[in-house]
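Retry 2 of 3 after timeout on previous attempt. Resubmitting structure tokens to design endpoint.
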């Protein structure tokens, strides 16, 4: 009895992966083994970078807060310590946005933290 192979399912599986690798360069888009390996590696990068994105944004916010704080005569760490001591609970994302886009509001928060 001849071996039965489900060509429809295996072809569809390959077509699905090859369609997911559209836009890749060279053999990465049309050679099955290379495309499959590239696609799998891309999933690993996506998983890793979803976490790295959080780190990168926190670092960016800290840099922006530090730049705004230095204009007011404080360092980042002294500002954050003063905010904590004054009981002002504001997260770094909002504080960085204020430092960039609303310097008057940021200045008011810094003054309140300094005076406490």
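Retry 2 succeeded. Sequence:
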């Amino acid at each position: 009895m001849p071996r039965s192979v489900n060509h429809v399912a295996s072809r569809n599986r390959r077509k699905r992966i090859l369609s997911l690798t559209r836009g890749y360069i060279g053999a990465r888009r049309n050679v099955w083994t290379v495309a499959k390996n590239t696609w799998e590696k891309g999933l690993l990068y996506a998983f890793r970078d979803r976490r790295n994105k959080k780190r990168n944004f926190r670092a960016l916010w800290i840099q922006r807060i530090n730049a705004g704080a230095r204009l007011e005569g404080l360092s980042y760490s002294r500002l954050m310590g003063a905010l904590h001591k004054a009981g002002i609970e504001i997260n770094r994302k909002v504080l960085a946005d204020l430092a960039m886009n609303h310097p008057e509001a940021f200045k008011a928060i810094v003054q309140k933290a300094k005076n406490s």
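Attempt log closed. DSSP finds six helices and no strands in the chain.
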